[in-house]
Amino acid sequence: MITAPYNFVPLNDKIFYPPWASEDALKNIHDVPFEDGESGVIELEATAKSPIFIKDGKNPSEFCHFINENGSKEYYIPATSIKGMIRNVLEIMSFSKIRIDESKHKKYLSVRDMTPGMDFLVGKAKGCGFLVKNSDRYLVEDCGKPLTISYNNMGKEFAFVSKLGAAKNKYEKCKASCEVKFSTYIEEGKRNITRAKIDKNSLKIGTLVFTGDIDNKKHEFVFAKNGNKIPLDKSVFEDFKSVYFENKESVDGQYWKEKFNEGAGEKIPIFYTRDGDGKITAIGLTQLFKLAYKKTIFEAAKQVGDETKFDLAETIFGTVRGDKALKGRVYFSHLKSSFERFEAPKEGVFGTPNPSYYPNYLEQQSGAYTTLMSKDAKIRGYKRYPLHSGAEQLSVGNDNEKMKVKFKPLSANSVFKGKIVFHNLKKVEIGALISAITFHGRSNKFMHNIGFAKPYGYGKIDIKLAPQGLKYSQDEYLKEFEKQMNEFMPNWLNTKQLTELCAMASVRYKDKKLLQYQQLENENSKYFKGKNNHQESNEFSGAKSYNERLSPYSGMVVYSEPQKPLQDPNKRNYSNNRNNRGFKK
After folding, report:
1. Are the CB atoms for 583 and 575 separated by under 8 Å?
2. 125 pLDDT exceeds 60?
């Protein structure tokens, strides 16, 4: 079973569009009151039930604050943070659309997955050559199968390459031409591999090609042109571009991007895969190279709906969507702390979960994994952090000081006060707002969390509210909202969306073992692999080898013993799935 400090509320298949929120009605919503519209104030008091930290914009290690007229610091939770927290809950409870950062999630992610059975998620070179741009077309000057050349056979002239890491460093050091004379020989063994060696007496001429460094790397490559030129589909180049040129973290990708775009452009040494007809299907910078996923996170988050309409969260909080804009009718103040009492300064190493980790981030059925290569790939939903019974010990097991984040949280029982001002909300909308703040009138059973270090139990807050001068009681507003949602979705409170939301917000805390990050290196990992069944220390790849996936939080339980794979991992029967969705056990 996979554990994680986060989980997901599943996306709603149907979107609730308020029947009173027609485009004409919304045009004058700030000037012409609804017949049952109300304006008013809700006083908020938030008490931290665990240490809490909201990062200051100017000094990230300090709690968010401003300097008052006396030169003293006053600490607060920003209005935007509270508004975002409440809006997220209201979106889930009202079956609104999920909001996705287009600028971030419209980009195509890349993958190089070496997990057995997931061969379609890595480019395995069938040939090599040089990428050339000719006007608006792309060609590959073919070099056939790549020839490996060991460092021992590269001679003194190129002895430096084995110590330089990235291919960029090797090319920059190799100021002379990388064209070499070489001969070939058969390395006898299990596969009788043909390898190259530099031979100044040979008539064969090729180009020495460098790739990035990996553990225990012992060779580079020789490309020898054969005179063939293979046309390359623009879509294949675009995939290559998204993986290497648009990835700022790819040192070698950025190096070749600059070279390729300079003047006439240099040729890029590439490796390629091809189909049965000889057509090149993908290219990369290494022998086992990254592929571009066929679907973006943004596309996988797409819900079927009417883009001409506004959902309930948009009608209350406002939105800007393309050429459509709607001003919100709810305004939050900062929540200011009434006193300050700090915890001792903290530091920790905080991981960033990767949305390309498909066992967790994509909806999975039994059997073969679904990945972003699949047309039917769909994200798991709204990502949220379940409550912890208390603040957990931070992960500090890294000697690299640059990786550690230092911060100074306010202590548990810190109190923050502020208010919400709203204008021309209908009774059902006020009910939705109160419902999102109180988890539908059940603040004694559920709580919010906010700010930094939520994966370790920080930022848990209990919110009390006091509406000022409204027509009805809190229960009557909640009943109006519940009635409306039951008409749209019968048995609304027991839908899987509200079940998962409340499970993660519940003060009936689950065992902290369920909320631990997977580790890249764990010498006590429960996973095993290989002929000798040796321990797999990387829990991310180990979980995939055992075909595990993140379970819905409401159903997670702690197992006293590690779950075993359905079969011996050395004897799996992998399927050639036509849709390239994964493997079956």
Report:
1. yes
2. yes
Question: What is the 3-class SS of 75-103, one letter each residue?
Answer: EEECHHHHHHHHHHHHHHHCCCCCCCCHH
Tell whether the model's pLDDT for residue 280 goes beyond 70.
Answer: yes
Which one, of 213, 214, 229, 209, lies nearest residue 271 by Cα? 209
- Angle, alpha carbons 137-142-145 (nearest 5°): 140
Confidence of residue 572 (pLDDT cuts 50, 70, 90): very low
Residue holding tokens 């991310």?
A: 540
Mean of the pLDDT values across residues 155-171? 84
Cβ atoms of 357 and 520 within 8 Å: the answer is no
Residues 572 and 410: their CA atoms lie apart, in Å, by: 52
- pLDDT tens readout for residues 378-422: 999 999 999 999 998 887 665 566 778 889 999 999 999 999 999
- What is d(CA 555, CA 504) in angstroms, rounded to the nearest whole number? 11
Give the tens place of pLDDT for each residue, 507-527: 999 999 999 999 888 888 888
**Cβ atoms within 10 Å, residue 536:** 20
d(CA 162, CA 92) in angstroms, rounded, equals: 54
Characterise 478 by phi-psi region: left (phi > 0), alpha (psi -120 to 50), beta (else). Answer: alpha
- Token pair in block for residue 5: 């400090």
Burial of 429 (0-12, 13-18, 19+ CB in 10 A): buried
In the structure encoding, which two tokens stand for residue 207, read together?
A: 């180009």
Given phi > 0 = left and psi -120 to 50 = alpha, else beta, which region is 570?
alpha
Tell me which of 127-141, 480-494, 498-512 is least confident: 127-141
d(CA 481, CA 494): 15
Contacts of 267 (CB under 8 A, 6+ apart): 130, 131, 132, 141
Cα distance between residue 412 and residue 394, in whole Å:
16
Q: What is the pTM of this model?
A: 0.86
3-state secondary structure of 563: coil
In whole angstroms, give the CA distance from residue 434 to residue 481: 9
220 in Cβ contact with 154 (< 8 Å): yes
Q: In this structure, how many other beta carbons lie within 10 angstroms of the beta carbon of residue 79?
A: 15
Strands (E), 322-475: 324-327, 330-332, 335-337, 346-349, 382-384, 404-407, 415-425, 448-449, 460-468
Residue 433 identity: L
Please count the other Cβ atoms lying within 10 Å of the Cβ belonging to residue 199: 16
